[in-house]
Write a structure and sequence with these properties.
Blueprint (H helix, E strand, L loop, with lengths): L1 H22 L30 H9 L3 H8 L19 H12 L16 H7 L5 H12 L1 H15 L3 E4 L4 E4 L6
Antiparallel strand pairs: 1-2
Helix pairs in contact: 3-4, 3-7, 5-6
């Protein structure tokens, strides 16, 4: 009898916890309408938002709506036909999403992030000083995983989404209130 009760409790717990896990919200899949897999190599011009790629124009039109879409793409390993960055051996959709997120939250000097607490170019420079951008990114992803980067950005987005605004002068996202800037 006790064996039947034990099995019943085990099955009940598995059902209860399994349902709870299934009910948790998931990060949506990468939206193909962003066109990141079709990006072409870009001339070296600095931040992604300073380039004229059709994907960039679309992302800038979406404004804040683009941020969760880019976060969803961080784990997408679909490769572009050619690397979109010079001196990179290849670029995936997830790599490009990272480029956009990092750059969209970097001021017009190209040197100062406008959001803290996320994985960005400064994080990579600190963890892999003296390494090329490609080496630092690939090593970071190998060590921590793309899901880690996605979870990091997703958490920060959830914390700050209502305070994030587009600064047209700096051409980047910032946190706060436009009138106070």
């Amino acid at each position: 009898m006790s064996r039947i009760v034990t099995v019943g409790v085990f099955v009940g717990c598995a059902f209860f916890f399994g349902s709870a896990l299934c009910a948790q919200p998931r990060i949506p899949k990468c939206d193909q309408s962003l066109g990141l897999a079709k990006m072409q190599p870009e001339p070296e011009k600095g931040r992604m938002q300073d380039m004229g790629a059709p994907q960039t124009v679309h992302i800038l039109e979406l404004r804040n709506k683009a941020i969760p879409m880019l976060i969803a793409c961080l784990t997408d390993e679909t490769m572009t036909k050619e690397p979109i960055e010079h001196y990179w051996p290849g670029t995936s959709v997830g790599d490009i999403a990272f480029f956009y997120l990092s750059d969209l939250f970097t001021d017009s000097t190209g040197d100062r992030p406008t959001i803290d607490g996320v994985v960005n170019w400064k994080t990579l420079e600190a963890e892999y000083p003296g390494s090329s951008a490609a080496t630092a990114w690939y090593e970071f992803v190998r060590k921590h995983g793309r899901k880690y980067v996605q979870d990091n950005w997703s958490k920060r987005w959830k914390e700050e989404q209502s305070a994030i605004f587009w600064d047209a002068k700096e051409r980047c996202f910032k946190i706060g209130h436009p009138a106070k800037q």
